[in-house]
Amino acid sequence: MIRIGLPPPMLPRLRLHWHVTRNTIEQYYSAFRAGTLRHIHATRALWAGATVAIVSRIGSLRTRRVPLEAQKQGRLERFEAVYEQLSDLICWAAKEEVTPEREAEYAHLRLSVRELYQPLRATLRPFWQTEDMESDYDPFEELFLPHDLNEVVDSMGGIMAISMAREAFEAYRESVR
Question: In the chain, how many domains are there?
């Protein structure tokens, strides 16, 4: 075997050069890795915070929407109950006679129905509005706008308005189902 040795001063210089290069590359790699991990953690924290904010906002919208629907449904049920009392009163007054007690009850129910009807008018309008009728006719208002119970009982519009209003309620119930 032939032994050819490297000159002695060359090895330490090569070793030192590779050692310095390796240390420099390790420093760059460590700095790059630390920066990347820092950005990854910051991005994850940002997305986690954004996700929590979005989910909480959606959750609050859901909880807000459900009570609004429940509130609307409750308002409609209260209106329907008072409306039924009003229509029963009108029917009994038409069948028998208008007494002062019925007149006082009509005045009370008339105010209650008017108060409950205003927020629901837009909801119920499509169910009683047809192409062949006047655009400003409202069967519900026909029952509670007159000040006197005799006006409702004596007019043919009162009885027709009761049947149209009942049909509107039925149509609304069918659309909700």
Answer: 1
